[in-house]
Amino acid sequence: MTGWSEVEAAAPELAAAVRACFERGKHKTMATLRADGSPRISGIETEFADGELTFGMMPGSVKLADVRRDPRVALHSPSVDPPEDPSQWPGEAKVSGRARSGPPAEEGASFALDVTEVVLTRIADSGDRLVIESWRPGGQVRRVERT
């Protein structure tokens, strides 16, 4: 089990940048798997609390049924259109893992994410290439640049 606090300990700079991407807006996107294995994309709200990345779902929602059947999920930060100067784009973040029961919820279900991958995509300060940083439990931050 890898909670958000383990991500922060192992890759503090990446964790801070990813968290900033997630916290710049209320509405994120979540991918779950339908019963037939095809993907489902849904809106979701997340929170970083007590060393965990948490989220909740309403009772009877199809994404809740998906997660109860198969806990693998991917979360995507709010999207922001790139400005005129691409080097000023704040980037986007993705966090994947397995949902596990979280703190009690008044209604519906609450989950915390056991993280399996963290990815940050942004434009280099020079504005001439894409920078993709990623981390998986037990590994180091990996950086790839594309022109």
Automatic annotation (TrEMBL):
<keyword id="KW-0560">Oxidoreductase</keyword>
<feature type="region of interest" description="Disordered">
    <location>
        <begin position="69"/>
        <end position="111"/>
    </location>
</feature>
<feature type="domain" description="Pyridoxamine 5'-phosphate oxidase N-terminal">
    <location>
        <begin position="16"/>
        <end position="111"/>
    </location>
</feature>
<protein>
    <recommendedName>
        <fullName>Pyridoxamine 5'-phosphate oxidase N-terminal domain-containing protein</fullName>
    </recommendedName>
</protein>
<dbReference type="GO" id="GO:0016627">
    <property type="term" value="F:oxidoreductase activity, acting on the CH-CH group of donors"/>
</dbReference>
<dbReference type="GO" id="GO:0070967">
    <property type="term" value="F:coenzyme F420 binding"/>
</dbReference>
<dbReference type="GO" id="GO:0005829">
    <property type="term" value="C:cytosol"/>
</dbReference>
<dbReference type="InterPro" id="IPR052019">
    <property type="entry name" value="F420H2_bilvrd_red/Heme_oxyg"/>
</dbReference>
<dbReference type="Pfam" id="PF01243">
    <property type="entry name" value="PNPOx_N"/>
</dbReference>
<dbReference type="InterPro" id="IPR011576">
    <property type="entry name" value="Pyridox_Oxase_N"/>
</dbReference>
<dbReference type="InterPro" id="IPR012349">
    <property type="entry name" value="Split_barrel_FMN-bd"/>
</dbReference>
